[in-house]
Predict the 3D structure of the following.
Amino acid sequence: MKIGKFVPRLGVAALASAALLLSGCGSPAATTPAAPGGTETPATQAPETPAAKALTIGLVMLQGDEYFRNIEMGLQEAVQADGGTVIAANSTNDPGTEASAVQNMIQRQIDALLIQPVSGDASVATMKLAVDAGIPVICYGNCGGPTVDPTLVKGAAQSDNTDLGAATGRAAAEYIKANLDGAAKIGILNCDSAAETCKLRKAGFKAALEEAGIKADYVADQEGYLADKATPVATNMLSASPEINLLWAANEGGTVGLVTAVKASGNRVAVFGTDISEQIAGFVLAEDDILQATTGQDPVGTVQAAYQMAKNAIAGQANDPIEQLVPGVTYSRADTATVEAYLAGLGG
Amino acid sequence: MTSQTPVAESPDTAAPAAKQSPLRRALAWEGTGLLAVLIAVFIILSLIAPNFLTAANMLNILQQAAFFGIVAFAMTLVIVSGEIDVSVGSQAALTSSVVAYMVVTMGLPMWLAALLAIVIAVALGAGIGWIRDALNVPTFIGTLALYLALRGVAHLVTNTFPIPVDASEFFYWGSGRVFGVIPVPAVYFFLTFVVVAVIARFTVFGRSVYAVGGNPKAAALSGISVRRVRILVMSGTAFTAAITGLMHTAQLASGNSTIAVGLEFDAIAAAVIGGTAMAGGRGTIIGTLIGVLFVAILLNGMVMLGLNPYVQQVVRGGLVLFAVLINVARTRTA
């Protein structure tokens, strides 16, 4: 064989080896054969008791961040305690990718599907595919309209997103009354295109200010939900509208972006956020006095409630009520003990 | 993206091998190695991945392959001609958004809205091809501008909300099954393969694409209209992107501005894995077919194995890197 033809073939062989090696590097748990699907588990199974058989649970996440990392870890912990397997996928906010992931999971013969749909309208057809395959579907976030319809889902456990915004809004109202004479020029970083729940958070935030009698002037409302992109947007917002004296972000990336931008600008602008992470908790405790308060979700509580709903559905038990709202937790400078308890829970 | 390759390697360069036995020709074909890898991966996944080797899953793989494979075939011609198109994902999103807007807000019939959206896409693609030739603006730059702008227009049209479409019969064209068995997108996939393969191998235009990719100046001197070739190949990817956008709209029963993120890279990856040279002038549609099936099978198998989704991204990136290295080695040793 000539060397000219040998080199490419050697490369192909290396490609094959790499592909096969990686194909085989699943965790032992992941390669556990799927339990047969169906809904014939005895209905006597009470909530909080482990499933009678090893289940294969499909998990579709929206994006890669700390919230979804905790969602996956929380589910892994609960499912593996029952001897089951989690098949996880990330839709990256793309309904097309979401459809492919669910189609693959149906072929994998999962026993239940836990999904945070990209959108109510765009994900219904995909969720119907699972329903038509006899797989119970549980919505664990971004649930609303058709995605909480009992003909489509067997249960929905999600953060109360309106209240996530409203809780921060109430904290902001107190700050405005105490420091800004009841009126504020407000800049917002939204995540409207990333998830419909973001719009609920924003509505909740605005409603809380209105209910508190705050005179709010929304000077800017720009998109910024990933920290790297949110930071320059926030910087530009502050440059364009120097009269802004209070900022609010609708998610974790936006909150980090706002704090980073205010810190870099050297201006004194109060920041209020949404979501919690180790970094954001650090901002609340920081001496710079920039981030005043944020309201975080409870990902582990949410996904484990969704998993319990899935087990009930597999056992043939109806989930009543079908929708469970998991409250958020507000972390503020006025209550640093809650922040420190959160950090302690992380081991930090 | 102009090529310095002195001589284009069209499908006809296999002519001297015509006198060889079929077995020798098969062994000499550069796609043989990839085909062997594809078969090996398939066998291993059949053995270790739960529920991989079922008829339903094979059809599922073909359905999913269609959503990037159709674009990959057209992308192969673009790359062979020495160009690139990174706007196809945004183009698909725009098509989906515009169709839903025209149907729901303007009240146009679905067929007319789909036709108009395809015309818009093809016009944009042709425009980039014309700009490439007339103003010497690299297609990477032109399509990068579209990549950013078209996604923005799609967001504006939909206000980032999905626009539900009363699917009824239209839903069939994205998720239906021919004879109740074969997914409709899989039929599009194989039809596109046949059409593009015939164009590439048996038409004057197809030969011109390879000639322009190998050496555009020589091609122009030999009487080939380089501008026409560039306009047509760029129109081709825009057309297939629009078809993919329509398939997504039908499958999801809604127009979405957030679909098809990364479609361009899946299509380019499949073409490169299938042996298409990024420098232009070399590549085959059958190679891309194998590349598409390889990627689709591997993605499906990784889900079946329960691999972490981020590991899956690493594997995809690694595959592209290996394929490019093989391409480089092949070019240097040719």
About this structure: The longest strand of chain A covers residues 215-223. The two ends of chain A are 60 Å apart (CA to CA).
